[in-house]
Amino acid sequence: MANFYRIILLLGLLGGRLVSHGQQGPPATISGNFQQLPFAEFARQVAATTPYRFYFNPTEVDSVRVTLQATAQPLNVVLRQVLQATPLQFAIDAEHHVYITTGVPIDTQLPADFFQVPAAEAPTPPSPALARRAGVGSPAASKVYEIGQAQPSSSGKATLSGRVRDAKSGEPVVGASVYIESPNIGASTDQFGSYTLTLPVGRHQLFVRGLGLKNTTRLLAVQGNGKLDLDVEEDITPLKEVVIEAEKDRNVTSLQMGVQKLDIKTIKQVPTVFGEADILRVILTLPGVKSVGEGNTGMSVRGGGTDQNLVLFNDATIYNPAHLFGFFSAFNPDMLKSVELYKSTVPARYGGRLSSVLDIATREGNRKQLSASGGIGLLTSRLTLEGPLAKGKGSFLVGGRTSYSDWLLKQLPSKSLSSSAASFYDLSAHISYDFSDRNSLYATGYYSRDRFRLATDTVYAYSNVAGSLKWKHVITNKLYGVLTGTFSRYQYSLASERNPTTASQLGYNLNQGGLQADFTYFLNSKHTIDFGVSSLLYQIAPGRLTPLGENSLVVPDALSTERALESALYVADRFDISPRFSVAAGLRYSLYNALGPRDVLTYQPGVSRSEGTVTGSTSYGSGQVMATYQGPEYRLSGKYAVSDNSSVKLSFNRMRQYIHQLTNTTVVSPTDSWKLSDTYIRPQVGDQVSLGYYRNFKANTIETSVEGYYKVMHDFLDYKGGATLLLNHHLETDVVNAQGKAYGVELLVRKSTGKLNGWLSYTYSRSLVQVSTGTDVINNGAYYPSNFDKPHDVTLVSNYRFSRRFSVSANFNYSTGRPITLPLAKYTLNNAVRVYYSDRNAYRVPDYYRMDLAFNIEGNHKVQKLAHSSWTVAVYNLTGRHNPYSVYFQSQNGQIKGYQLSIFAQPIPTVTYNFRF
Amino acid sequence: MNWFSIRYLLLGSALGLGGCVESYTPDVPAATQNYLVVDGFINSQGSTVVKLSRTLGLAATGSAPAEAKATVYIQDNAGTHYPLTESPAGTYASAVQTLPPTRQYQLHIITSKGKEYLSDLVAVKTTPPIDNIEWRLEQDGVQLYVDAHDASNNTRYYRWDYTETWEFTSAYNSSVEFKNIAGGPPAPAGAKYIVPRTENIYNCWRTEISTAIKQTSTTKLAQDVVTDFPLLFLPLPNERLGSKYSILVRQNAQSQAEYDYWEALRKNTENIGTINDPLPSQLTGNVHSLSDATEPVLGYVSAHSVVEKRIFIDRGEFPQGRLVYSDALNNACQLIEVPKDLSIPEVPTIIIDNALNVFRQPNILPIAITFGSGNSVIYTASTPECVDCRLRGTNVKPSFWP
């Protein structure tokens, strides 16, 4: 291999320099008597008498002495004799060029298909472009790809676009860096693996870099606009889980701030309590993201509520991304490629939630061959199948996961536990298909279901359905568009049959359909413009109570359906003012219409809304607009590169949220429902300004950042004391609008390559709430800590790879205890001791501290093997620290005593077996 | 069963995985304030009883300090006053009276220090009768249900409290006692002797008042009917079911506001402060200080009538062979044998011997004189809690007991 590079070098640097000029004429033979002649001199003499021209590296031949007598012998015979005792090889082409190389002779003929240009090639037919899909492996690297047709009138720049694919599986490579070094121009591939570069006309060396990728280069001769698809090889790893991360210097060079991207490999290294890779739990280790409780996937991003995070699974919204009370996230790790969390600069393309966007992308299936992978854990097992469709033009990926917690519960000694049931499963599928180079179709489906019953009582069930269909169309080299249709459904039910008189079932159902068109236009090397339009239609059946059985006296009750349309237009421009300074400005304008039919109660103005202050009602017909909210959402960010490896970024963001989660517990529970904004419930609006400094060290292998933010949130929901959230026909009487502010500083050191990798973060942050409307006041209207206010947080996620087959991961997490409302005094009322509480959230539970350790052992790496497998042995909570999951108080012998419950108070070992074949 | 129980189910299973519960003492400054607590309601058909007390620190033992020597009266919206008188300290009661149901009422309190408190004006709710109290034998115990209805559909919010009374015995039926026989010759003055017991300390009755908040609403039902409201569950075997058990159920009609108050109080007290439960309310009630609007006053004063119903459950009503009764305390009792010294002559009806020294100790009571091994005469004896049922109840038969 290395020799090929040397040849390139030789040709590039020395080619032609040693060519002797000879007379024109027919092919000549060699005659003469040569004694101990240096090879260079021999070549000079031959060239002088024949049409042959020699190309070689003088350093490689300076030890060769030519001693022979020849009479009209052909050159190849002579050379074979001369070079037979040396490692040198020779090759002669039709133009009588003689190439001397070490080890391997040069191939003087192009491959047979070299000039067969793919049909949808360059935009200017008929193109003499030599570019073609570069073959697997290095020979492609030695080739010079001519891009486009020379255009005399051109500005001296040309646009190059194409796709980067995995050479083995044919899957697009996302987030790989495609760049040239001189001048420094680069881009990273998008979710479809596409890239676009605007390059000066001329010769360039193009580099493709990405984590888990072999470094790949191509030589380009750019003459005009053109296209170049690149197949890259993954770096050798036993399982195909390595996918691409952002380019190494993205931390410093990208315009975005507050973005965290994790690939599935990183996610799988992090030890978890039940041994299964869990994306949401890894997200919780990132700076600025706080868990709402151990064993719960609900998260608070930069002080926001658990409902302020948009969870997208290939662009379809997932409303309850958790299984089994939140102990598992609802995504099969084998299906996933990467997870991206936006917490401050949210692209204008996204909207609808205040705090963050969590963009979860599935892999594409293997385009080359059928394969399967899976895992067997203590509580769950999973299986994934993938393979090519239509001879590699497309692929499919299907995965499923199920629990056997039912079985586990039955083994428990307690009767109430063993007669209980809890089960879940999820299924997901993804298909991609390229109709042509310009048209691709992607379809994703997702279904998850949970069901649990406690003893003989209520049965709870909930399910998520989500699907998306995407059509990507490349309109021109500089413009492409994606049309996406999405559908999401979330529903839950609880049924109680214990008492025949009150036996009933309660159901909730949320449907969301969406259509969006997104376009990206590479105007020129300084401007990239994104624009698009989207529309979401919501339909919620917020509660339906139905009697069960003949003896039930329960009156059927159904809340009227909520409907709304949320539409948005956006345009965003990334403007590279200079190589050091760039800005991105985005404007999203969202419009929300709450739609009838509905009877809306009217209330006396100026007093707290309650049943007692109802004055009448207004009736709206089907489809009639009841309430309209609209407003611009600004997304501004700027980056100034202080040096090649450090930069300063500033951003301002406004988000609007029209759908609210109703929950009166701080953890996420399956009976939490979602409520649309209406006449009384205003949309939440949040503004965030953030400032960050980023610096990379040691050739971008260590990235560091400091980000500070300040954000204000308006009109999120808080609840009056004793609020009824289920089956409430006039929810507006039970909720109050709260205002919040949050601020903090996040420090991150991250090393993504090398034997030791991982990250260490420290966050100082506050999250405060104020409820002080004219009529409803909490804590006398002062700001008080929200449930997510944990000022100090230190997280370490690390992995050390001893060898290709053995690695160790360690986690460390510390955070301030969460706020709590404590009992202060007791009193006797109605024969029992009662408790008087402090101001809301005036105190804190003990600090949280945990350490986990995992060992990953890979099977051997023989390529020819039935199944590749790996074992993960992990210990969760290594130190057995008693972290409070819950703090509660009980009355005992007239004293009120406090207790803390720790659910994982001992080290918990787990073993998981993963396989792929 | 609610979502919280589901979580506890999970926690239960998690405990199997290494969870644990331990004591937690928050670092909270001792509550310096002591707020007034108003415990009671305005009884529209009977005597209104209101208890005034003060709040206590969490770790304090003992009962809440009573608020004595206050002036307390009911006033209606027509300006009429109905006085309450104090007896004992901190408990204030009115005469048995019927208040006009069309008026609204409030409670006025003036403490001995001159601070004035007033509850909000409330309308009178008249409580419908209890239809039925029923008990059913279930797998693990006895479940008591209550039925009620209001044909006029006005009640809607029901709350119950109850008083349980049951007859029980101590472990041993003592026929003798160690007692000073005043003036009985020839005993020396101040001496005590074993004499036949005259008072029954074997059969007693124990009474307990409910502490749980039991309430329901029928607003989701087409008719104002309460069917099979699960009032109380007695797990079997039970110390209450030795011979006869009785429960007196009091039914209270409520306004929605009062129902909400009790519901919040129930959530506050019955799931005290679990961090993942609904945030506890800073619940006070409907009584306010007239001098300082920010001073918390605890308690809700409503106005309604009360209806009562009593049922009895006899041990004989249970099927044969079912283990119904078990008294943990009695089961732990042990009989002690004290040898009688026969060398000392007996005085008619009075026995003097060295064994009496044993009974001078306060923690042992004689049960009977009997024969031990080898025809020796012994005293049987045991600890007071195994002999004297009055330590757990009263040996005065309640007037309602059949």
UniProtKB/TrEMBL annotation, chain A:
InterPro entries reported in the protein's UniProt record: Beta-barrel_TonB_sf (IPR036942), CarboxyPept-like_regulatory (IPR008969), Plug_dom (IPR012910), Plug_dom_sf (IPR037066), TonB-dep_rcpt-like (IPR039426)
Membrane among keywords: yes
UniProt topology in membrane: Multi-pass membrane protein
Gene Ontology cellular-component terms listed: cell outer membrane
Protein location: Cell outer membrane
Keywords of the record: Cell outer membrane, Membrane, Receptor, Transmembrane, Transmembrane beta strand, Transport
Keyword Transmembrane: yes
Domain TonB-dependent receptor plug: residue ranges: 276-353
Superkingdom of the source species: Bacteria
Broad class of where this protein is predominantly found: membrane
Region ranges (Disordered): 146-166
One Pfam family of this chain: CarbopepD_reg_2
Family the UniProt entry places it in: Belongs to the TonB-dependent receptor family.
The name this protein goes by in its record: TonB-dependent receptor plug domain-containing protein
Organism the protein comes from: Hymenobacter ginkgonis
Automatic annotation (TrEMBL), chain B:
Species assigned in the record: Hymenobacter ginkgonis
Name under which the protein is recorded: DUF4249 family protein
Alphabetical list of PROSITE patterns matching this protein: PROKAR_LIPOPROTEIN
A Pfam cross-reference name: DUF4249
